[in-house]
Amino acid sequence: MEITVCGPADVALLDEHIGSQGVGSFHARRFARQERGEGTYLVAWLEGLPVGHVEMRWTGCDAAAVRAARPGCPEINGLGVWPEELRSRGIGTALIHAAEELAAERGITTVGIGVAKDNPRAAALYARLGYEPLIDYYDRWSYETDDGRLRDCVDACTFFVKELL
Length: 165
Description:
CATH topology: Aminopeptidase
Order of helices and strands: EHHEEHEHEHEE
Low-confidence stretches: none
Number of domains: 1
CATH class: Alpha Beta
């Protein structure tokens, strides 16, 4: 497995192999943030195909409660491994470590990651990797459905933080 920073040509491969929800490309939006310097989008590759991704959002979590609790804390966001049968094989852990290394290279000493309350498996992974719960919050986002309607989503989440050594 190899982890690289997402390049322009990678977006189409990500869309093809790890689809997006709704209209427009989830991956293109993350790549656009990277181009603006707001994040770094990492992709895990296995045998030439994308099998995972994570974004290090230098601008931090969008939730005001998290920003107030830990100002200036960058967020590891949108961790995903696909297809499902590749989960629990270290790909997600490797992506998190790669994001942490990027932060350490910038002299950042604390990073965070949010997890939905209904995802105890991910929360257990983050705890094993040294992340500790900081605050509960609601993650809110929206996307356009294929029929043109805007769908608003809200997840009850916990924001975890880790002090990097």
